Amino acid sequence: EPDVLHSVCPDANVAAVRAADHFQIPLAVSVHGIKPNELPQPQDRKYDAYVACDQSVRERLLNDCRLDRDRTTLISDCAFPERNPDDRRILDPRKRQVVGWVSPLTEGCGYRCFIEAAIKVQARGVDSMFSILGTGPYGAEVRDEVEARGMLPRIVVVQGLYDYARIWDPYDIAIVDTRQRASLLMVLNAMANGRPVIATEGGAVFDLIQDGVDGLIVPRDDPDALAERILMLVQNPAERLRMATAAFEKVEQHYDPGDMAYALNAVYAAMVTDEALPKTFDSRTMKRSARASSS
Question: Is there a single domain that holds both residue 72 and residue 111?
Fold first, then answer.
């Protein structure tokens, strides 16, 4: 019998919730989004620990959901450094650049802005390909919009994804709209796969990306700004390589899965002993303290 269970989202129908009730053991939940349907109910008490993935989510849990501070904490997302930026691929002057936009195809996902930006880039005579990858209720509408704008040969719409480990392989530049759930994890994974990232502003993206250093940030629903950022990267392979390298190094240095595992273990220990959770976990400091106490 487990000592603690952890649910991946605040959904009362998730098996972990029923199992925790059955075994009468503490239950943690991860919260990745800030939309109403992604948050627990106000003053919710179904869980013994609420783990926010970034500061903006934690603020919503405390201020909007009015959750108990002692049961709410912040543990940042992590990513395994998967693939170093491939300098030969990036600097190859013969390679046509592929710009990938990845998101669930739902209302307000920002796909029209991407289509408009692609049209503007093409109008500048830049020979690039574009792709929209995602699934959702707006899939047919997205394809119809691409076709209506005369961009179907230039924008490839892919509505099925069967190998998440290879999601970034076709793309040279990754674009992530931060209105989607777990958007920072999407950004991290692109960075961990050696891709330069353009993300829309919002949430905790400013904590993850230093604009112009290890990624680019653009206003939401601004096709002119997005087109300019795409052009800048497509036309400057050395800058793509520099930015992708800086992003990959940031993942290596600051988003180590081992740090996340250490912080989660600390959360579980606090739950078992019925102690208050700290506001956030600085796992590197905790590791140093643990080593000092054991020596």
Answer: no
Residue 295 burial (10 A CB sphere; 0-12, 13-18, 19+): exposed
Does 91 share its domain with 145?
A: yes
Residue-range definition of the domain harbouring residue 35? 5-78+256-294
pLDDT 10s digit of each residue in the chain, 295 long? 899 999 988 887 788 888 999 999 999 999 987 777 788 889 998 899 999 988 888 999 999 999 999 999 999 889 999 999 999 999 999 999 999 999 889 888 899 999 999 999 999 999 999 999 988 899 999 999 999 999 988 999 988 765 666 889 999 999 999 888 778 889 999 999 999 999 999 878 888 999 999 999 999 999 999 999 999 999 999 999 999 999 999 999 999 999 899 999 999 999 999 999 987 775 455 555 555 555 5
Q: Positive or negative CA dihedral for 121, 122, 123, 126?
A: positive
260/250 same-domain check:
no
Count up the domains in the chain and report the number: 2
Same domain, 23 and 144: no
Question: 110: which residues sit within 8 A by CB, 6+ positions away?
Answer: 103, 177, 179, 200, 220, 221
Looking up residue 125, the CATH number of its domain turns out to be 3.40.50.2000
